[in-house]
Specification:
The protein is mainly β. It is about 0% helix and about 45% strand.
Length: about 120
């Protein structure tokens, strides 16, 4: 059973920063496509970042490229997301995503995810 627990969300002012983290259990740490997504009230879920647990390029959503940085720890049991220069339009609940087993195919097209409970980010102008 995949377990994903996000933390680090909060309320910040326009231009502020936060460091989100996700503890992953029972996730492939070599060939799993994992990432961060966010969903604002009344909007569809949006990709923030995706990457392979085994290493390689990190794919970022256009709206966050240059401001957000994804990462994983040394033993690959946690992934992080540093969110910088936050804007009011970044208001959303941020979710960690990971597959139960290995991911086959392209990471950018993976949809078979387990989801964490989410951690909210609120930005005031």
């Amino acid at each position: 059973q995949v377990e994903l627990v996000e933390s680090g969300g909060g309320s910040v002012q326009d231009g502020g920063s936060l460091r989100l983290s996700c503890v992953m259990s029972h996730v492939s740490f070599s060939t799993g496509c994992v990432g961060w997504f966010r969903q604002a009230p009344g909007k569809e879920r949006e990709m923030v970042a995706r990457f392979w647990t085994g290493g390689g390029s990190i794919f970022y959503g256009v709206s966050v490229r240059g401001r957000f940085t994804a990462s994983q720890d040394t033993v690959r049991t946690k992934i992080g997301l540093e969110v910088n220069r936050l804007k009011p339009e970044d208001n959303a609940k941020f979710y960690c995503a990971a597959p139960e087993g290995k991911t086959y195919g392209q990471c950018l097209t993976e949809n078979d995810f387990h989801w964490g409970q989410g951690t909210p980010v609120t930005v005031s102008s």
